[in-house]
Amino acid sequence: MSFPRDFFQCFQISCQGATSITTFACFLCDKIQPALHQAVYERTAKDIAEDMRGKFPDFQGNRANLEVFILRYLAEEENFEYFKQYLKFPKEFFQGYIERRVKSHCLDESRRLKKFLDSSLSLLYGNILSAVFLSTQIVKDREDREDKVSLWLDEFCRELSEVISLPRSDLKGIEHQEVTDIEFLKRVMTKVLATLRDRLQEEFSHADMSSFSRQPHTILAEHCSGCWEQCPFCGAVCTNTMQGHDGDHQVVFHRPRAVKGTRWHQTDHLVIDICSSLVASDCSFRIGDNVWIPDKRYRDAGPPCSTWNILPDPSMQAYWKWFVSHFQTQLEALYNRKFQGRGEIPEAWRRITKQEALSELEKP
Ligand SMILES: [Zn+2]
Ligand SMILES: [Zn+2]
């Protein structure tokens, strides 16, 4: 967007020096427009992330908290394909989940995106207008200065340094314009800025999420980030809130190994045991062609196994018992293996309702 010369005709500029002022305002607003546009989107992305953190319990804690909501979502959808994606690509699934939540918050029938953009715009527009007034106030009585325009620009850019990116050096082209009537300059700038605001507002009514250079969902995702290493046996994601943390990876709850298709040796029977039970058992697992490692000494298998701290603990979440029972057929088909023999699903698991599984998950 740029301001054509004839755009200023509507101001009926007729006094002396008007051409200089027109050139000046034209040039300056052409510089302000992209900077303001960018600042509005940057601010709005932060506002949206902040608003969602305030409104949705999903985003009010760390990633472990968010994961509870994601598991709830998966259980409610009951779509095995979604589970598959989540189990295989947890990070991508989290990001997709957050992105969908942001999209529906911003673009549903209440069209919050436009409201967020308008409110950022109105704030920033107010800042720019204040800068115009303030610079004018400071410069207009400086009879001692010949270079009023240059001084005006100094003040204007200084005033806006925290608001929009408008380097003073980019405005050298107009700093020698002959403008004597600073009050008149202020009036022209005010009108031009109002038009600029109206144009942006008009643009915002068609805005979608693609207009952000830094997406609100990226900001939210960063807030809920952490270590994304997955347990090499069951795929559970390390619960450490720091990426590249010191020490071993760890999770509170491991999952039945069947979720990754693990089977008992020389059978097609899936393993329903969890890692933290197996490390206390006399079982072994095979790496490569024929190297057997006792589960108790799983670290001997080297990385990535050796980078995990799996403490013996038999507790298994009802959620995964429900999952395995509910999606038995799909899991069997996916891995071409059976829940049989040592992998037979206990009757007690089948009696767990989805509601029970979710209630346990959400217990503080
Ligand atoms: Zn595990
Ligand atoms: Zn970790």
List the helices and strands and how they pair.
Elements: H1 18-55, H2 63-77, H3 80-88, H4 90-107, H5 112-139, H6 148-160, H7 182-204, H8 216-223, H9 275-278, E1 284-287, E2 291-294, H10 318-326, H11 328-335, H12 347-350, H13 354-362
Antiparallel strand pairs: 1-2
Helix pairs in contact: 1-5, 1-7, 1-8, 2-13, 3-4, 4-8, 5-6, 5-7, 10-13
The structure holds zinc ion (2 copies).
Descriptors:
VLIG_GTPase; 364 residues; binds zinc ion; two-stranded antiparallel ribbon; mainly alpha; 13 helices; elongated; Interferon-induced very large GTPase 1; 51% helix
Largest sheet: 2 strands, antiparallel
Please compute the radius of gyration using only Cα atoms: 31 Å
Helical proportion, percent range: 40-55%
Order of strands across the biggest sheet? 1-2
User: Which structural class best describes the helix and strand composition?
Assistant: mainly alpha
Q: Terminal Cα separation, in Å?
A: 53 Å
* Gross geometry: elongated
Report the bound ligands by name, code or SMILES. Answer: zinc ion
